[in-house]
Amino acid sequence: MRREHAALLWTLMLGVFLGAADLNLIAPGLSAISHAMGVTSDGGAWLVTVYAIIYGLGLPIAGALGDRYGRHMVFFAGALVFGLGSLLAGFSQTFALLLTARGVQALGAAALIPLATAEIGSAFAPAQRGSLLGIVGAVYGLAAVIAPPIGGVLVSYASWRWLFFATVPLAWVVAGLSLFTFPEPAERRAAPLDIVGAVLTAVAVGALLLGLEYLHRGNVPFGVASLVFGVLLLPNLRFWERGASGSIFGNLTLRGGMGFAYALGLLSAAGMVIALFVPLYGLRALHLSETQSGIALLPMALAAALASWQGGGLTDRVGAMPVLTAGFLLLAGGAYAVPALGALPGLVVGLVLIGGGVGLTMGAPLQYLVLGLAPRGQSSAAVAMLGTFRALGTAAGPVLYASFLPTFGHLFLAAAGVGVAGLLAALLLWGSQLRPNPV
Q: How far is CA 96 from the centre of its chain?
């Protein structure tokens, strides 16, 4: 790899790490933040919820901006905005200001991960693409694993405010590096962004994510109302975008292969969310301690990181569809193995298989596929839209699984059903003989 490509890759990976780590970094400090701000633990949890929702609704807009004005400047702006949000969060004196700052952070993060993925698709040779996208997945997984311990150290030995201050230097380093390592110039396109369409998209996606969150918290009236509002807004959005100049969707469509790819993104994220229920399963079904229940997730995390890393190189050799199919097969088999084998051995074997499936389905193959299916000049928007569908899957998963509690066997069978649905969709797409375009 040439020196300039290596420098670009380091910049992109630091951006991915920054965006992925922040959601998990504050988890150990939620109790301290809630106490300092005088809110309940349920209120403090909105710091995570607001970040996730704003991140999800910001993805399609960030992708469209990257395609229009160049990924270089949008990535730079995302890192800069993230750093400003972190600084504002660290100095916040009220909970409302802290929530606002979390939203600013999320908007910055929405420009980092999808644009880094799209840049890999265009700046590096096709023969390297799968391997490099596998590294993206491994970095994302590494950030998710090491961020909570780092957050715990910061809260214990400094202050909860350092959960935010600590990310400011890294954000601005990423912004500075992007100025010198990105190869593409910031070219302004003739068609301006459709502002009304962008706002309608953000409101629709936000309403869907908020509705799923309310349902997960048991607030059924608000959840259903928000979901209905978001669903009713979608046809109006499509009607507006059809005649609008500078539509953020451009030539993207949910028909054909791209629709299948986005469905696979939603199902892969919904399958991954079963990890949230593993500690509860360990405590109540296997009667493990809290520490043991937390450690039980380690095999899944390690398997996911290894599969994501190896899945990239495998995608380069055999293509995306065989790897995706294998991933959903592992996800379904692992989820079924937990109640079928029973007790602790079943949990360990099942989580290793689930982790392998998550690493393959959430890692390089699906991103590789979307980059190949994207209309020319819209790779950033296509990858960002994949992120939006994954955000919807992440929000829908807990609602689905919680409906099967307190019977834990049914809970994992529901996860196996998600894996089977993904397997069938992958086989249908594979059988269509669809051939992605070169990126």
A: 25
